[in-house]
Design a protein that fits this description.
The protein is α+β, with helices and mostly antiparallel strands. Helices cover 45% and strands 19% of the residues. Strand 4 (79-80), helix 5 and strand 5 form a beta-alpha-beta unit. It has a single domain, classed as CBS-domain (Roll). The chain has helices at residues 4-7, 21-31, 51-58, 69-72, 86-96, 115-119, 122-136, 139-146, and strands at residues 35-39, 45-50, 74-75, 79-80, 100-105, 108-114. It holds the Pfam family CBS. Residues 8-65, 73-130 form the CBS domain. This is CBS domain protein. It comes from Brockia lithotrophica.
């Protein structure tokens, strides 16, 4: 059985909650990534900030690009342990309509798991179509099918 640790990205670029959105956007561009786990000074996960958070929560409301990450991040993101089965992680992605999971061990970020990572594992690949369908639905469509 394939575990999350077997396919997750181990080199994780993170953000500090006091960074500006401009700094975070530059970091995303530099590393060609769309999400950064937000960690505190103690190294513990505080939240996640995505390119979508920057656009939807800040720019679309004409807020200043110098807002801090803490102002727009999603606190307490959905996480997964590195020892969990890959299919369990895929189901979490589908259930919560997310493309990425922060992999946490003891409260510390140890990796990231994306839909792309699922496609690279035989077990995960079988579930990718479901994850993509769920992530692509609107909240109303998702709620209607779940209940």
């Amino acid at each position: 059985m394939t575990r999350v640790a077997d396919v997750m990205a181990r080199q994780v670029v993170t953000a500090d909650p006091q960074m500006t959105l401009v700094e975070v956007a530059r970091r995303m561009k530099e590393h060609d990534i769309g999400a950064l786990p937000v960690v505190g000074a103690d190294g513990k996960l505080l939240g996640i900030v995505t390119d979508r958070d920057i656009v939807v929560r800040a720019l679309s409301e004409a807020k200043d690009g110098n807002l801090r990450v803490a102002d727009v991040m999603t606190p307490n993101p959905v996480t997964v342990s590195p020892d969990r089965p890959l299919l369990e992680a895929a189901k979490l992605m589908a259930e919560h309509q997310i493309r990425r999971l922060v992999v946490v061990d003891g409260g510390r970020v140890v990796g990231m798991l994306s839909v792309k990572d699922l496609t690279e594992a035989e077990e995960g690949f079988r579930f990718v179509d479901t994850v993509i369908r769920e992530v692509s639905e609107t909240a109303e469509e998702h709620g209607a099918e779940v209940h």
